[in-house]
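Run log, item B.
One chain of 213 residues. Sequence copied directly from the ordering sheet:
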Amino acid sequence: MKLLLDFLPLILFFATFRYADGNKEAAAAFASEHFGFLVSGGQVGLAEAPVLLSTLVVIAATLLQVLYLKVRRQKVDLMLWISLVMVVVLGGLTVWLHSDTFIKWKPTGLYAAFALVLGLSPWLAGKNLIRAMIGDQLALPDAVWATLNRAWVLFFATMAVLNIAVAYSVDTSTWVNFKVFGITALMAVFMVGQGFYIHRHLPPEDDAGAPKP
């Protein structure tokens, strides 16, 4: 359930963009009629309609994510709060200014923020956030936790640069595919690599699932 909730905004963004991109005239007319008041000039053109509608959907989905967790009295992770701020600010600019530039910068801003938070938290808060999130599930040496934290910092910094490099190198439709499938695949590969690294450093009782005789 949590995995679906985490990926819901991304899924809805992709589905909305693909449908609107294949029906641009209808999408532009719908966006102008129902959301023209959010757009500078009040009219949405054929070219920007897919991005505008998918941006509105991802803003609404992220807001609903936070609201759902709040209603259920569950913790809203810091990264979700950062994502909400990014998508509302940059998504709002995308809608108002008819420009996909801002929403393309959203993943880069988000990943850069994650890298900064993870990188600075040991210095400013005296806390390794990766350890804080999953440390109660794994018994690992301090040096391993530090390495994992650095690896996530490097990964997010790399993704921040890669996203904007792709965004400025290809058309919007191709960037959407990269955002949904490329970034997700890279994240999966990175997490598998982390899994192998963690496995190598687990104590015998965690590695085997039970204490050795």
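Observations after the first pass:
- Residues 60 and 188 are 26 Å apart (CA to CA).
- Residues 1-97 form one domain.
Flagged for discussion on Thursday.
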